[in-house]
## 1
Amino acid sequence: MEPKDFIQPAALLFLIALFTPILGRYLFGVFEGNLKMPKIISDFERKLFRFCGINPGIGMNWRKYLFSLLVFNFAGIVFLYVIQLVQGWLPLNPRGFGAVNHDLAFNTAVSFVTNTNWQAYAGETTLSYAVQMAGLTVQNFLSAATGIAVILALARGITSRLSDNLGNFWTDIIRAVLYVLLPGSVIISLLLLSQGVIQNLNPYLNVTTLQGMPQTIPMGPAASQIAIKMLGTNGGGFFNTNSAHPFENPTPLSNFIEMFCILIIPAALTYTYGLKVGSRKEGWVIFGVMMFLLVAGFSVSLYSELSFNPALNSTVLLEGKEMRFGIVNSVLFSTITTGVSCGAVNAMHSSLSPLAGMVAMINIMLGEIIFGGVGSGMYGMLIFVIITVFIAGLMVGRTPEYLGKKIEALEIKMAVIAILIQSAAILILTAAASVLNPGLSSVANPGPHGFSEILYAFSSAAGNNGSAFAGLNANTPFYNILTGLAMLVGRYGVIIPVMVIAGSLVGKNISPSGAGTFMTNNFIFAVLLTGVILIVGALTFFPALCLGPIAEHILMKQGILF
Amino acid sequence: MKTIMISIRLLTAMTIITGIIYPFLILVLGSTFFPLKASGSLIEFNGNIRGSELIAQNFDNIAYFTSRPSASNYDPLPSTGSNLGPTSHRLKNNIDSIKKSYTSFNKLVWNIQIPADALFSSGSGLDPHISLENALLQVQRISDARRFNEAKREQLIKLTYGILEKPFAGFLGEPVINVLKLNIELDKL
């Protein structure tokens, strides 16, 4: 290893820590409504409210908030489904792509609305420019905004007292898009363009290569979609190989920018949360736990990736990796994209060494709380915080409280449901696919790696990640429908309990803290929280991981091939 | 009912703002500030477009530097990696056969250490870069094929070093050589 191999990750994490308070404060200002916006934007916002028939001042209780969210997301799924079916009649379709299959269209529609961005299709050979722009790009924005809305509602539930007002869903969505995601995406698009990411509406280009062979080079409006794909932790590539594709991620600098974009909003939200609950330390403790888990996962991945593989008789495993990134940037990206619910990849995860692939899986299985998706990482982490507070309460024999709010049976039940429902979806569907013919016939690699492909697929779907061990042929009716269902369960099976918790907490009084109050803003709590996350994750998934990556690692060390 | 109406209207507004206005804005900005890059970093040589500097091409001619192995055989439609796992027999067989062909193609001694980028296929199948070591191992074969004299061979080595892209700001990414650019320079030699 060279010094630069340490400097690259260190520089990235340093910049994230640096920008967390800056963006965090901005987000706080935006969502508390006390930030003065340029007149042109606030005028535009007012017009938008009027056009949509929204009364921004009206607060919603949890039922209304959740109902609005579900209806809005359902409308998104229907629209995205239909636009894929009528693709052939729409403009901006230079390749003349026809209607997408029903099962694939369902899968893709659900995938982009749930912020999963699992891709059972190859963009450059399936979708027209019009669908990528007016269909997928839009949901990249809206699914991220939905995540932000949910964490805002939960934060209001924790901080307001004796109320039922969780805020206005529509206002939150519009603010998230207009004030955060859209301006951010314009800036990031420009940076990516400067590096060589393409943005045009030209037809695919037929060239004769230098050696005299024909080659068709795909084109398209990629930069605008990739910016929000990263910033919104969506991860759905414009091209099949996502951020490994030179048109999506042309240089080491573009790669650095993309990794920064994945992390920055989820990281900043910890600070915003700290401001909202009135103690920045609360935010930093959560930031610290996330950062610790990220660095730990990255270290394991890197160690695994740099150790000798006797089966292939090689130390430098460049299969599925791009030269301009090398091993360190590939592994850093794979750790970040799975810890955060992004799912973009700059190297093929299927070809990672077994333990590096396992870290990616574990990051997803833990619920993507290592910074996690925009909004979803933070509310996922708060679920674990509630469980931790409960366990700590049991240990000392006091009614558990979090920030002055009593944590009672309903909150605990909902928190446990949120964790269990995702885990159950992953394990049950993996088990089913591992014994059924249509599940097994899609597997590409034999041996334990084949099982890992299935386990990864359902983890990625239920965890709303979207990355894959892409050897698996997932574009079959079996996988399209099952992963589609897993995405729905994984997204709304968490959002609904979280909204119930928000609704329950908002009605409670805040008791003043005293000498016996269990503090959640110190090192001891950080350790406890980390412990709970790892124990819950390990107990749930260790057996499955043994059959996949752990078995593969041990066999690989004995030089066994499949 | 009201919620449904608001949903439809908001979705319509957002489709126009983020799905049409935003991509077209980036389109305008891209073609204004980075016209060449936005249209694919295309490379012109002798008056014809010969590909994109970012997209690998198949070079199996003995007189050119070869690109990294590609699981899609350098076809960008669609881009793909092999997705073979770390205990894959097929991957092992691929590497062994590439090792053999690389050694004999470049007339190297049988036990030479071949750089990993020459053995393993890339993630996108379109990786435009190779390592310096990989390029240098091919110099002799190319010089022979083009009947270069000693001076020209030296020139080619210099050219190879000259075209090496260093890590950004000294610490980001890996040092790489763009195969298409190098081959075009080679044709000019």
Note: Chain B touches chain A through 95 residues (CB under 8 Å).
## 2
Amino acid sequence: MAEPLSPLGHAFITGDHGNSAGGVGIAITERKNLSIVQVTAWRETVPAILTAISNVTGLSVPDKPGAGRSAGEKSVFGFAPGRYFVVAQASDLEDRLRKAIPLETGTIIDLTHGRMAIRVKGPWSEWVLSKLFAIDFSEHAFPVGFGRATLHHDIHTNIQRIDEETFDLYVFRTFARSFWQTLGHAAAEVGYHVQ
Amino acid sequence: MTASRLPKGGRVDRAKTVRFTFDGKAYSGHPGDVLASALLANGITLFGRSFKYHRPRGVFAAGSDEPNALVTVLSGSVREPNVRATELEIYDGLVTASQNRFPSLEHDFMAVNQLAGPIFSAGFYYKTFMGPAIGPLRSTKVWMFFEKFIRRAAGLGKAGVTADPDHYERMNAFCDVLVVGTGPAGLLAAEAAAETGAQVIIAEERPIAGGSLLASVELIDGRNAAVWAREKAAALAALPNVRFLTRTSVWGYYDGNVLTAIEHVSDFKPNRTKGQARQRYWIIRTGKTILATGAFERPIVFPGNDCPGVMLADAVRRYAVEYGVATGNNVTLFTNNDSAYEAARALSQAGVNIVAIVDVRADVSGACIEIASSAGAELVLGHAVTGTHAGKTLSSITVQHFNAQTGHVSGTPREIKTDCLGVSGGWSPAIHLASQAGGKPEWDEDLQAFLPPEPNQNWVTAGSAAGYMDTVSVFSDGATKGSSSKAKPKLPSVDAPMFDASPAAVFQIEPAAKSQKAFVDFQHDVTADDIRLAYREGFHSVEHLKRYTTLGMATDQGKTSNIPGLAIMADARGITIPEAGTTRFRPPFTPVSFGAIAGERYGDLRPHRLTPMHDWHLANSAKTYEAGLWHRPMIYGSHGETVEQAYVREARAVRQSVGIVDVSTLGKIDIQGPDAGIFLDRVYTNMFSTLPVGKARYGLMLREDGIVYDDGTTWRLSETQFLMTTTTANAGNVMQHLEFYLDCIWPDLRVHLTSVTDVWAGTAVSGPKARAVLEACVTGTSVDNTTLPFMGIVYGSIGDVPVMICRLSFSGELAYEVYCGAGFGTQVWEALLEAGKPYDIMPYGLEALGTLRIEKGHVTGAEIDGRTTAHDLHLDWMLSKKKPYIGSAMKDRDGLADENRLSLVGLISLDNQSINGGSHIVSDATPREPADSFGHVTAACYSPALGKYIALALVKHGTSMIGNRAYATDLLRGKHGAVEIVSHHMFDPEGSRMHG
């Protein structure tokens, strides 16, 4: 099977960058081999969708705006009313969701090729991301597991908080290289490692 | 004025030396100095030349209210003008220069402007350059002649012309409470707020916290006030729920409790660490704002008040107490209020010699008398300064008897030798941010100043900003405003005499015999006479006053001039100051660099959008251009080839054999749900619910007003799923249009929309050999005419990459669009090229794509321009008569059915010359201006298929004009040529090639 190409091209340079002499403030990773599927419920079928997602992924997500869960490489989070990202390292993720979710319950669209997944991890992750996005990254406003849909520079981005200092960003593929470079500029102050 | 460093005192680190230059001359100072204090310590008192008259000016204030001491900071080829010397922290290697002088600060030729003072009075530009024509003199032409001289003669610093190499960034912050200012009110307000557990941000524009406490000689809880403030600030900064920002000026207050601030991150350092921004632009969203912004001392306007050596009294105190600098050997204070006596006490303790205190009031308190006595200063009550004597700096002042009630000056002038005059005309709460937030400031008779307006958002003012002028009251107000509790706050003890904060209502000293100019706005050279002239010429409103005289419009935004200016206008009109009113303050409170606002968008103002095959294009000689945010190949140029030669070669290859083009940029929207077909029937003019699964259809959308909105093909992937394609440019708009209708107009429809533009890489394979290319590389499906007819869809693989292929044509040739997951786009593109090698397959760019569609008469955004109807574009065959759709109700209104409307035609050049896009269609063989245009060219090219230059055009009575000769005229570019009007279907009008 052909390997999908990263949208980053020459912009992906591993190693330490920016003000890293005294250590790095964050690590940035391109997450690969993921399936990224969007599941959307009808107005009255949110509970049924969440049950189906739980059955497929094992991740139980409460019916709250933006709520989500993650475990290892699997994650689920809501980012709009009735709309969820389901992410896993499983090529059959879309098929399994499609079987579990009939049209009466909701719709499914595989966005794997349309999004690039970036993990930002480190003690300065909130600081760096706050330079780019006009949302509150503090943990009381953006709890672990929760997701957000927001914009940077006209680039739509979905963000999930994985733990206190780790965020997963899902960026439109065609903007990914441009965003990656902007992220690097924002992180240069605290030093960053690309892996 | 003979300024010097005092033997002791100040916060500067005297053990260390900092070296810098001013106007090319080397100086030294100490860490903790600002440029103003360091230069004063070196005996420099001349800092700049004034805006219009080039009068010598010295330091006037000690903070962001400074109107005079503006300098340019030079760094290599980069220059930053109009930096306030009173705030610019010195560092080793700092290079600065004075402004608005030629050839030097000391000897400025343009000082001759002072002789022409009456000419440059209020309304100079309006009277001189916008008046009526007199004889042969048309005022605009006079202006055009003199403009360059005037711009050289007047102004502030000059902006640089080289790119700014610095790095700026933005920061978004959220908090429960934002405290602006860290004087006594701000510190206690922040402490009280933090104690409630709230998330608190504290912003202080200076390098250290303390505000007025930094120059105070009071004892707070038994300790030096500045030390107390430093300890309090450190304790606050250590709290986990507090973010303490220094060197951060909050400059804008917007709706929704959004405030903006500028943080000087590293522009006070000789060397920046890697990646460190110079300045950071903060956007702070807060639940509550506490504006503890303090108060500005204001001057008294009197003749000769602008010479170097005349300063605000508080500034004299601050240079002595904070920086250990005496601004004169023999200082005099001139006041209408008690605060000058506090300054006198501090100056005396700092070792500064005070000659006299001139007070307009006939009586002052015993405490004031005691201070004057202990400072050894002569107390001159009931007098006012009526003149100054100075060369480039102050040598003496003239005082006369003054009646504070009547404003009458009398008696024999008396001269007092002094080299520094500290003036205090009372204090004005810094209500700038509160004014920006909204509401009308309220006049306070006691303070003779405007107080903040009633809040219309969740903000409060605290301390001096709220009108409390003594430290005890300020502490109390700050603690109360920061707390959510009604319990009486515990306050620090203050050991200081109480003064009366109320000034005498004296704003200007106007002796009967005028000899010197009396300045109100130092930065824009606006005098008291200018304000009275504005009144006499009918500009009575404060808004008119501001614009006519430029009072308060410079970089200092009138911090020292607004109240005196209003007072003089009120006096001229015979009304009170509150009756005269005040203008509303606008952002920014202090100047903000464009770099900081641009933030991380340096180098480019927008992101770049790249197709999956972008790197391949660049590696294979593509010349790209920007189409919206996208970067798209224009041509794949060979060495020495012109753009026209390249696109002709590429288009010819498509007509003769086969070519491929990257169409990944087309907008793509996934439409799913049981009502998807019904939804499409409503948004498209033609029917989609009847479209069979596995087929595509060309669709047309109208706006609500019946004008064409967008077009594209939509593919039915299943009974309940469609893939809509839109034009590249309109993808986002169409998505919003559809979402609006689903959310707001037809919420009952069960349809979901998702943008999938980025999911798919798209390659169009076009030309007579297109099928042969697919047959050579596609597996899992046949692509013959039966399996894949025109507008059919099949699924297969190229290599091991799954692909979806739809047979449709924009070029007019046998053509297919091959879609695959975007991550596989390059692999599929290369596989198609490999399969096409036997047919000399050629990649083609947007220019060839445009050529092929012009030959065919297919429309794009150039024709769907927001003005054309389906009928104009000969697309009325797509308008269903069986169903309503968006725009159907309005499409037949009279204006859209007018027979005089422009409609689409083709043009063929008759002189074998190219036709310029945008040319007008006229009937005259001779170019004329103005010409009677009856149409315009929308797109033009050289057609390799026809061997001619051709174009598409929108022309009045288009169809009936076919066969006529006309002229395409482009007077801007000097082109005028004969054309024949033909059908827009200029090549293969029967469509036999694409159906073959």
Note: Chain B has 23 helices and 53 strands.
## 3
Amino acid sequence: MSENTIHQAAAPVEEFERERVPDRATRGLKSFLGMFAGEHVAGTELLIGPLFVVHGVTAFDLLVGLLVGNLLAVLTWTYVTAPIAVKHRFTLYFQLEKIGGRSLVKIYNLANGVLWCCVAAAMIYVSATAIAVPLHCQMPALNDWLPPGPGLAVTVFLTGLLFTYVAARGYEALAHFANIAAPWMVVLFAVFGFSALPELGIHSLADFWSVANQSIWPGHAAAGRVQFTFWHVMFFSWFGNMAWHWGMGDLSIFRYAKKYTYGFASAAGMFFGHYMAWICAGLLYAVQVSRNGADTAISPGALASDVAGWAGIVLVLVAGWTTANPILYRAGLAFQSLHSKWPRFHVTIAAGVIASLVAIFPGLCSKFLEIAALYGLALCPMGAIIFVDHYFMRKSKMLDFYAERVGLTAWWPPIAAWLLALVACVAMNFGLHIQIFFLGLPGWIMAGIFYYIMSKYAQSRFIIESFRL
Amino acid sequence: MKPFLMTLSFLALAASLVSSILCANKGLSAETNQAVLFVGMLVWFAVTPFWMRNKKT
């Protein structure tokens, strides 16, 4: 997932932000394949793989659950996101503005900025664990919420400040470095997997299944952790990038596609990235536990260093940095959009300092699966609103792009539908005890239904009142 | 020049991959594998910037 959030940073969002992408600017399939393959190998993969082990998945649940979930994610990109993107060729933001006015975009940006700070914090922490290896910092235990000592806290905070400063200066140079590093990172994740095998006692394919069930994914959740099943794995891998497919964040990318079938390019990210990277990261964690059963801490730097030496340490640093950087930059832009007179440099510094402070607490990273699910859940209702506006408004004799057509800066149905869907999800979580991993789709569907019903009521009422005036 | 540099870059990646596969088959020690990975990394980052163009973002 994860990672998942760097999509927009790598997308060519500076162009055609407030107009339809012309046909001459569309791109071929190859550029989408490269973009997805590179962007879904991020620092947080090194948290997600071990967290699946901690949550007690079995080998079958993981391998098959990831296969099905990632396949569903690819199909969602292809048949939900890409068709709307190719039809209108607008960014998510411009489309939201047309539907709900600038106020809706501001609220969306505020939510996005806050969530980006949390995701950036996880990236900062991941990179800092790489720096902590040669510094011999004491690492936190699995369920620690506080850092074990000042060494790690200072390392994390200074790492965050460095990332923040670079992001505030603009991410062009580091974006180029990220492009260069991407193929190497994909290969090194595969290297992690191969290098971990002999330590786990796997020397042939025949060894793999028995060791996988006994030692790597034995199916016992750690104390205080939800026991994961096939369904958890499937829904997490499907919804890990929910904000981008169901939530329509990738309208900004696929508006450049010649055909909606380019959505299948997301398979490069889901299978070379998520599927392979999460499994390989799980193998690294299994190596650590096999060496010392009491050492259950998730420290990506140490995990990678154990099997790949300095190359592993550099990978963790680079994977975290190249993804934290655009996220911090985008968080700065999101907050700046609330008040155009705020200088982007200062806003990005403020967002980065907040992210760096959050990153100090390792408990946040050990709960990254929940944070990733929350990220998707909070933003996905916007995708439902765009979906309903695109497919159902005209068929139901209502106006699509209502705020733009009527000239409103704030149109309440999409805002109310979003908030109401989130309130309903919170109620389902606390009242019905439905875990956050399963709330994404109900939240999306409810937001769509609420938006439709409210629009039906509000559009007719608004038109009547306007007529009387 | 560019084809030569590209070849060098991809050889570095291939060496990293082959080294880890050999390590998995006990054909190479973990220490040697880590050394190959380190050298592969240096070659990749030293050579690739000279042929990979800066994509506009």
Note: Chain B has one domain: 2-46.
## 4
Amino acid sequence: MRSFRLARGVATFLVGAMLVQLLHACGPQSQSAEKTQLTIATVNNGDMVVMQDLSRNFEADNPDIDLRWVVLEENILRQRTTTDVASQGGQFDVLTIGAYEAPIWAKRGWLKPLDQLPAEYDVDDLITPIRQGLSQDGTLYALPFYGESSMLYYRRDLFEEAGITVPENPTYEQVEQWASQVNDPSSGVYGMCLRGKPGWGENMAFLTTLVNTNGGQWFDMDWQPQLNTPEWENAVNYYVNILNEYGPPGASSNGFNENLALFSTGKCGMWIDATVAAGLLANPEVSEVSEKVGFAPAPVASYPNGSNWLWTWALAIPQTSRSPEAAQKFITWATSKEYIQLVADQSGWVSVPPGTRTSTYQNPEYQAVAPFASTVLTSIEAADIESPAASPTPYKGVQYVDIPEFQAIGTQVGQRMAAALAGQDSVEQALRRSQAVAERFMRHTGYIE
Amino acid sequence: MATSNKSNQWLIGLLAWAVAFILFFPILWMFVTSFKTEVAAVATPPQLFFTPTLENYIDVQARASYFNYAWNSVIVSVGATVFALLLAVPAAYAMAFFPSKRTKGTLLWMLSTKMLPPVGVLVPIYILGRDTGLLDTRIGLIIIYTLINLPIVVWMIYSFFKEVPKEILEADRMDGATTYQEVVHVLLPLALPGIASTALLSIILSWNEAFWSLNLTTFDAAPLTAFIASFSSPQGLFWAKLSAASTMAIAPILIFGWISQKQLVRGLTFGAVK
């Protein structure tokens, strides 16, 4: 009975406190309402956390602007912002979107065009493929906060021991050979780590680049899915074989984070993944192999096009924003040269957001602390989203297809690939099923008869 | 015979502890992980012994204001529970004591609304919220939670009211009590343990609800589920910080549940021992 009285006391207190709050909410608005409030939706990753922290400088320079941060995990963010933008909810003033969304949303008129940027922003300094990825019909719709491509990481110490020298442009054939040479499971080193976790932005990001360089593509010019072609079969066979022979156990559940943890604790001989990992692997605070990691461009097979991907997280302003001028002020600040300088002053050049501006890569201070800088820049510049495959494609995007349906198709095909990797399906069967999935989606959405 | 009984009891006791440990293990592991460094959190094999650090809690607090989120969670879950009870008590009273031939069907229909996947009505609700200005407000979230918990609350209170002998209420009426007096002075005190456990369950369900709270709030009304969601990341290590954030998010409701577990267990097993 005593605890019952306690519960009643607690309940009374809570209800009372709540009523006070509700009354308070009905009363006159507080001071901050006079300021322009900007609600910024962003994704949780290291560079964005730094931006949130440094935005105090922006608020100090613009005392009439109040920033309100909504930080969410990538998939939740995507669902949240898509719902809001598609139904004109008007909850956000600044959106963090990827290279996949920018052209699709721009085509639907959901984003404000960014054609009135101040001269000091120096829009021509933005790295060309990144700028193209965020444009629709030549107009920029989002400003890049960071950009990435994919590249090959390898353990210099193990390679030296095995007598391997990595050429300027490695091939997948060589990579397989090297994987067999450095593979040593008994001492906990696996020859090759790759993404296996299913998802259009997970295993399919890597696999699509592998298919591209093998001469394959997602759709032909009539939007007919091409997954039952020999090019796909070659690529997927290569992927499944190399991971089964020289990969870590349970590779089909490894995503970027898992592989990062494996490589940084010395368990991988090689890893092909996002260039953004370079800064992390070279940082002794989070990596045990910071002294031993080597960098090379992503390998190629028979065609150079589309062997390395292109991704960027960018800031855009939805049409429904209540304060587009203030929003533009903020996004130009957060993606400016001054901002990059600010990060460098605060936490060193190695921490600046990579992959957006040519000037960053020309900076000798950056080159001095980032041994991977030139490889990253070459990789990004080499990525061609307009013609990502050997044959012409009706779509843009290296490791994705810029149609709204791709998320669903990519993720379902990704699950089939993970099943093939885990040995539940043969490669041939997995591809047949993937082709059927893709055909069904494309028929239902009216791309094909 | 006596010894085998005793060893049986031992065995059952051991089994109960084992099951409880398995159920509790994820929470324990989360709690332990929250005191590791990010690198230690993903180490294989998992580390059992390590130097604990409070760094994650400090980081989490520095990046987001926990108390705003927690306060929203408290207001929204208590508010929704109060509203749900206000609606459910009269409904359950009518159904329990004055059933019509459609009562059973109505009850089942109410429950069937829980079977619809919420994402199916996300866009209509979102547009309603936009047009009524209730997006990102606590009152908007309270209304949604009231509605989604209502079927369960009505069902539970209905079954508790069924336990109250009709004769007591009849005796009241003979003494000249009005319906209001009958409910407030006789029925509610009799069914109080049941109502209390229903309220507790409703608070816990609202506290844990993550779909609507993530989709309908942005900044002002964001509860703890949004707080947790901001610490998961596709690039970079985040498990230790996420564990710290989750530990902070579940702590209030865990303590609350612990204080009130007697009512909760009693309420949940009330109908089962008929």
Note: The first helix of chain B runs from residue 2 to 33.
